Every structure is written in C-alpha cells, then in structure tokens.
Amino acid sequence: MIPLRKEIKDYSSACEHLISAAASPDSIPFTQDEIDWISYYTAEMTNLVDQLVRISKTQVLHERESMQEFAIASEALFLTDGFSEREKDSIRQSVSDVATQVLDEQKEPAFV
Predict the structure, then answer these.
(1) What letter does residue 102 receive in the DSSP assignment?
(2) pTM above 0.85?
(3) Closest CA to 94 of 64, 65, 74
(4) pLDDT in tens, 95-106
(5) Backbone angles phi, psi at 70, to 5 degrees
(6) What is the pLDDT of residue 112?
(7) How far is CA 24 from CA 29, 37, 92, in A?
C-alpha cells in the first residue's frame, strides 16, 4: 500500500466506516439531518478534488502524451508541500534520472 498522509487516511477510514454502517443489515437508517451533512461534505470534497485537478493540469499543450503527463505531474508537485524526506529523495532521484537519461542524451549532436 502506498504511504498516505494522515488526513487522507483519516478521511478514507471515515468514509469506509460510513459505507459499512449504511450497508450493515442491522443498520439504523440515517436521519434527514445526517443525510444533509453527508451530502454537504460529499459536495465539498468533490469541489475540492475538481479544483485540485484543474490546478494540476498544465497550461502548455505538448504533442507527445508522455510530455503532457510529465508536465501535469511536475506542476502538481509545485502545488504540494510537506513532503517526507523519503518523498523528497524519490523526487530528487526522478529528476536526476530525467536529467541523465533524457536531457543529457539530447546534448549530443544529432549529426556527426
């Protein structure tokens, strides 16, 4: 399982408990107030995710799909903070790999 932030784990756990409670054969039906609360937070989370996805999409279009995906992932990193040291090391390694395996290859003259 991928490591997740505490807030995401808590959110996921709360959703799983709510779904489990609703699916239980001996569950007590939700009141209208409870349904309204669930609906409110569902809409808020959907809006948040939509906003984050819009922000993370790159404004520059690339011909290659792989370039477009790389640009989107890179821009998403710029909007994220609080990386663990392990996450930072992984990012450093990925950047290093791109530099050596992609960019450095392009420095050599195409025609000799």
Answers:
(1) I
(2) no
(3) 74
(4) 888 888 877 765
(5) -65, -45
(6) 42
(7) 10, 20, 46
